Recover the amino acids of this structure.
């Protein structure tokens, strides 16, 4: 399921309360926020700093340390390519190079509303290399199959 990109302050506060507003739970709070919204905007960083009683620089430091905590909204479509061992053995690096060229974007970045992300095991190792497109996993993806899947994804807009 796609995460909604719209942020609302009250929901953010509720997430913070679920973790008792504990500063040591900041990573878990951020994970819950990213699950919900897909990103962590500047305003949310400010709000979190207030609510868990940390400085904005502290929160920002944690956000920028982890690639998963993006500070820009993701694209409408999210393409993830597995980089873990079984998929690497079956060519996921070459596939990732192909994906970068074909989508015109680097890992962790977005072009034309498509975000390209690495992922570390999709539980589909028997069908490596594995790709996830908008939450759906596909196995044994080569460059041609990748382009077909991306074409279908773009048509589904
Ligand atoms: S290593 Fe890629 S799906 Fe498990």
């Amino acid at each position: 399921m796609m995460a909604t990109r719209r942020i609302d302050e009250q929901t953010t506060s509720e997430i913070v309360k679920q973790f008792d507003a504990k500063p040591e739970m900041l990573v878990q709070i951020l994970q819950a926020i990213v699950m919900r919204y897909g990103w962590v905007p500047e305003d949310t960083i400010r709000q979190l700093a207030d609510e868990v009683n940390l400085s904005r620089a502290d929160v920002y430091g944690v956000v920028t340390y982890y690639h998963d905590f993006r500070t820009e909204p993701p694209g409408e479509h999210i393409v993830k390519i597995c980089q873990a061992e079984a998929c690497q053995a079956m060519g996921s690096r070459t596939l990732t190079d192909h994906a970068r060229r074909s989508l015109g974007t680097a890992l962790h970045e977005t072009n034309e509303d498509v975000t390209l992300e690495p992922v570390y095991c999709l539980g589909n190792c028997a069908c490596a290399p594995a790709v996830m497109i908008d939450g759906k996993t596909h196995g044994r993806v080569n460059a041609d199959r990748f382009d077909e899947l991306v074409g279908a994804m773009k048509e589904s807009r």
Observations:
- Residues 9-65 form one domain.
